[in-house]
Write a structure and sequence with these properties.
Layout: H1 15-55, H2 64-88, H3 90-93, H4 98-117, H5 119-126, H6 132-157, H7 162-179, H8 185-235, H9 247-255, H10 261-266
Length: 267
């Protein structure tokens, strides 16, 4: 870890440097967020179509929990549709600061995982004729895989700073603990350990990538500062003093002996 950034949040102590880093990442955040929203919208639309065809004949037999799951899917479709419109219009998205975009992206992922938790009811209803243990296992696997996709996308597909993601990570761990409450204790412990491990590993990976990116950004900034300082130093030279790009080469030539064959070769 370098001394030029915080050891915990990775933020630059200098507000100007942090603002420059955010401007550097701003374009990628919008592009990646739009891509993820489009994928989520297409996937939700396909899911609604498939479920409408498969379950239309038995809609009258749905339980309240199944209806809650179906409404959750529709709400997520509406949310992704509205977010696509907002972030696709430049006159609207340009007014949103980078920090607010990060919060919106992290909040959307949190809402997605919360709505995914209601899918337990739908898949358990779909397997209501099967064994109870099979219902719980299948529903839990579907939700866990969905949450894993959201977690990985949140950390590596979106350019969100680690200091913002740590709050989303804590929310994921707590959400999973609440979702599995009431299940057998052994199942709770196993799932919670697996989800927590995934969150910790992805968070550490994101932290390392951001640290490297900030180090590279700092290197570029230092090179630009040195170039500007050199240009200012040249402007401060007294009038009549000229600096030729061949000056250094001429000094080297004057120091090379020209009376020998080796000296002639270096000239």
């Amino acid at each position: 870890m370098h001394t030029w950034c915080s050891s915990w949040t990775l933020r630059f102590p200098n507000p100007g440097a942090e603002s420059g880093f955010l401007c550097h990442c701003s374009g990628r955040l919008i592009k990646n967020l739009l891509k993820c929203l489009l994928i989520a919208w297409l996937g939700t639309t396909l899911l609604i179509g498939v479920l409408a065809v498969i379950w239309q004949p038995v809609v009258a037999n749905w339980s309240i929990k199944a209806w809650v799951a179906w409404i959750s899917i529709f709400l997520w479709w509406c949310l992704t549709s509205g977010s696509l419109v907002v972030f696709s219009v430049p006159c609207i998205s340009n007014r949103i600061t980078y920090a607010h975009r990060e919060v919106v992206a992290a909040s959307l992922c949190g809402v997605a995982m919360t709505l995914l938790s209601t899918m337990d009811f739908m898949w358990q209803w779909d397997l209501q004729d099967q064994d109870q243990e099979l219902q719980e296992t299948y529903a839990s696997a579907f939700v866990n895989l969905g949450m894993a996709n959201v977690i990985v996308s949140l950390h590596f597909a979106l350019n969100i700073r680690w200091c913002i993601l740590i709050h989303a990570d804590c929310f994921v761990v707590l959400l999973h603990a609440v979702r599995t409450f009431g299940s057998p204790l052994q199942l709770q412990v196993h799932e919670w350990v697996l989800v927590t491990t995934l969150v910790v590993v992805t968070a550490l990976g994101k932290r390392h990538l951001e640290s490297v990116e900030r180090s590279m950004f700092q290197t570029v900034v230092l090179e630009r500062v040195r170039r500007v300082e050199a240009e200012l130093a040249l402007e401060r030279l007294p009038e009549g003093v000229s600096v030729s790009p061949r000056g250094h080469l001429d000094d080297v030539r004057s120091s090379v002996p020209s009376t020998t064959e080796t000296g002639q070769q270096f000239v």
